[in-house]
Specification:
This protein is of the alpha+beta class. The protein folds into 2 domains: about 190 residues, Fructose-1,6-Bisphosphatase, subunit A, domain 1 (Fructose-1,6-Bisphosphatase, Chain A, domain 1, 2-Layer Sandwich); about 120 residues, D-Maltodextrin-Binding Protein, domain 2, CATH 3.40.190.80. About 30% of the residues lie in helices and about 25% in strands. The strands form 3 sheets. It has an 8-stranded mixed sheet with strand order 4-3-5-6-7-8-9-10, with helices on both faces. The chain has a 5-stranded mixed sheet with strand order 12-11-13-15-14, sandwiched between helices. The protein has a two-stranded antiparallel ribbon with strand order 1-2. Strand 8 and strand 9 form a beta hairpin. Helix 2 runs antiparallel to helix 3 and helix 5 packs across helix 8. The protein binds 2,5-anhydro-1,6-di-O-phosphono-D-mannitol and magnesium ion (MG). Magnesium ion binds next to strand 5.
Length: about 325
């Protein structure tokens, strides 16, 4: 029974930066995850947790109370370890500079981007939700600038998610495979449960919000019909939770493609490049899959602003390549 901490120490060569820094970063992520997990588990019991906070966030969406709680918990936890110099969150308009006397010292060298609670429309109905995180090295040597945050996904040094589902699982990559750890709530420890996660050879599932079918571009419509065709190993099974973390986790384990394309109403797609797509794309590639916006590799897209959206497709290489052929015949 390996704990997350033990696994990192034993595999210190997976990380090109000092293990101590990674351990401290993880200890703040673990702490925040446990605090959020505790609240998620009693969400039905009190009005303090479920429902809207009454705030419209930077995404123009109705912020849930738990979104706000998760955002605050992550910020406080990441600030306290003296290792992170800046944080950007899907819930906050601007990036946050972590103040302190060591602000510009060598010690505070990491930039963290988070979606504190993804899939928040599922909170009130007891369906899986998640946290997504992404870590870069700072570029600036003195004061933080927007360039520290607008780095391409291929510069990520760590990315992962926590899924609050039938159990709570933390999954991460540092560029040496994808590893998953399940929380044992009785002792409050994450244990290695899913080493070396990889997409299976079998292609089984397609995940897309088909209710938007009439608003999809033709290539996407044709691909959906292809998935439903009785031929070769098809039809595929349709599965869609509406929680990126949950849909991604299932597809990586069972073999499936996740698609959030541009639509008539969201011409740039819905998902955010920095908080959602880049970390999931890093994990996808490390699990042997492919992540694309339909034409370009997600990890090579140049970010122009913090809350940029992009169409997002990820899954087994053959399925994603097939969809790209339908988009660009
Ligand atoms: P959120 O960050 O506001 O929670 O939105 C992101 C979520 C993803 O988890 C999910 O895949 C997608 O939005 C679902 O959107 P839709 O309801 O349009 O299908
Ligand atoms: Mg989100």
């Amino acid at each position: 029974m390996y704990t997350l901490g033990e696994f990192i120490i034993e595999n210190r060569d997976h990380f090109s930066y000092p293990t101590e820094g990674l351990l401290r970063l993880f200890s703040s992520i673990k702490l925040a995850a446990k605090a959020i997990n505790k609240e998620v588990n009693k969400a039905g019991l009190t009005e303090k947790i479920i429902g809207s906070s009454g705030i419209i966030n930077i995404q123009g969406e109705n912020q849930q109370k738990l979104d706000n709680f998760a955002h605050q918990v992550f910020i406080e936890s990441l600030k306290s370890r003296n290792i992170v110099c800046g944080i950007a969150s899907e819930e906050s308009k601007d990036f946050i500079v972590v103040k302190g006397e060591k602000e510009n010292s060598f010690q505070k060298k990491y930039i963290v981007l988070i979606d504190p609670l993804d899939g928040s429309s599922n909170i009130d109905v007891n369906v899986s939700i998640g946290t997504i995180f992404s870590v870069y090295r700072r570029k600036s040597s003195m004061n933080l600038t927007m360039d520290d945050f607008l780095q391409k996904g291929n510069k990520q040094i760590l990315a992962g998610y926590i899924i609050y589902g039938s159990s709570t699982i933390l999954v991460y990559t540092t560029g040496n495979g994808v590893h998953g750890f399940t929380l044992d709530p009785s002792v409050g420890t994450f244990y290695l449960s899913h080493p070396n996660l990889r997409y299976p050879k079998i292609e089984r599932i397609y995940s897309i919000n088909e209710g938007n079918y009439s608003r999809f571009p033709n290539g996407i419509k044709k691909f959906i019909r292809y998935c439903q065709e009785k031929k070769e190993n098809r039809p595929y099974t349709a599965r869609y939770i509406g929680s990126l973390v949950g849909d991604f986790h299932r597809n990586m384990i069972q073999g499936g493609i996740y698609i959030y394309p541009k639509t008539e109403y969201s011409p740039k797609g819905k998902l955010r490049l920095l908080y959602e797509c880049n970390p999931m794309a890093f994990l996808t590639e490390q699990a042997g899959g492919k992540a694309s916006d339909g034409e370009n590799r997600i990890l090579d897209i140049e970010p122009l602003n913090l809350h940029q959206r992009t169409p997002f497709i990820c899954g087994p290489v053959r399925m994603v390549t097939k969809l790209e052929e339908f988009i660009n015949p």
